[in-house]
Every structure is written in C-alpha cells, then in structure tokens.
Amino acid sequence: MEECRKLYRRQPGEVKRWINYLDKHWGKIQCTDYERDKLIYGSDIIEPGIGRIINFRFKNASTFWKEEIVENLYFLRATLLAKRWDLLINNLVKQT
Q1: Is 58 part of any domain?
Q2: How far apart (Å, rounded) are the C-alpha atoms in residues 86 and 92?
Q3: Within-domain flag for 16
Q4: CA angle 86-89-94, nearest 5°?
Q5: What is the pTM for the complete model shown?
Q6: Would you place residue 74 in the very low, low, confident or very high pLDDT band (cuts 50, 70, 90)?
Q7: Which residues contact 26 (CB under 8 A, 6 or more apart)?
C-alpha cells in the first residue's frame, strides 16, 4: 500500500478509490499466502466449483425444473450464501 501511495502522490479519483478499497480489505487478501503454499486461487478455481455445486444441487438424476423456477432458486441460494437474506426479506416487506 505504501508503494501505491508513493507512486501516486497526487491520487486521481479512480486510483484513490482502489487504494481505499485495498486498505479496507487488506486483511482478507491472501494471494501471497496461496502463492507461497502453491495453492490455486482466483476465478479459475471458484467458477468451476460453483458450477459443480449448482449441478449437484439442481441437476440431480430424475429431477425436472422449469427454467424460471431454477433461476429464482439460484438467486435465493446466492442471497443466502452472501448473508444478505435479511436484506432481501426487509426489501420484500417494504414492497408489500
């Protein structure tokens, strides 16, 4: 982070936004740990994993789904996993 600040003494808006983002999330970034331990990380491993989970959950043998129902289930499952269920419910209550 210090390197970025030195490189961009006068930070344009976009650069400042990204530096602030990295500052805020620095404790969550573990790329160097993964590289050191020779582990795979990033979207190359995450996206196929999500695909497998979805296939296991929704594409079981002898299971039939309508496309619009499955899309809604994907959304609900993603909302739950993102820990945004309460936000979804609150928004639904406000709409009614």
Answers
A1: no
A2: 10
A3: yes
A4: 125
A5: 0.39
A6: confident
A7: 1
Q: Does residue 5 sit within a domain? A: yes
Q: Does residue 41 lie in a domain region?
A: no
Domain that holds residue 8: 1-29
Side chain identity at residue 3, one-letter code = E
**C-alpha closest to that of 4 among 64, 94, 20:** 20
Q: How far, in Å, CA of 18 to CA of 45, rounded? A: 24
Count how many Cα atoms sit within 13 Å of the Cα of residue 3 in the half-sphere of its side chain: 1
Q: How far apart are CA 63 and CA 12, in angstroms?
A: 53
Residue 25 CA to residue 5 CA, distance in Å, equals: 16
**How far is 50 from 85, CA to CA, in rounded Å?**
19
Domains of the chain: total: 1
- Residue given tokens 């050191």 in the structure block: 36
What are the pLDDT digits (tens) for 27-56?
A: 777 777 888 888 877 767 777 777 777 777
